[in-house]
Amino acid sequence: MSWQMAVVGALGAAQYKQQGAIGKANQASYNAKGEALDNEAIQIEKQKDFDITQFNKEFQKLVGTEKVNRAKSGVGYEGTALRVAKANAEEAQLQRNTIAYNAQIAANQKRYEADTARFQGRMARVAAKQAQLKTVTSTFTSMYSMRQPGSSLLSQDQGLAVAP
Question: Where do the domains of the chain lie?
Answer without folding.
Answer: 3-146
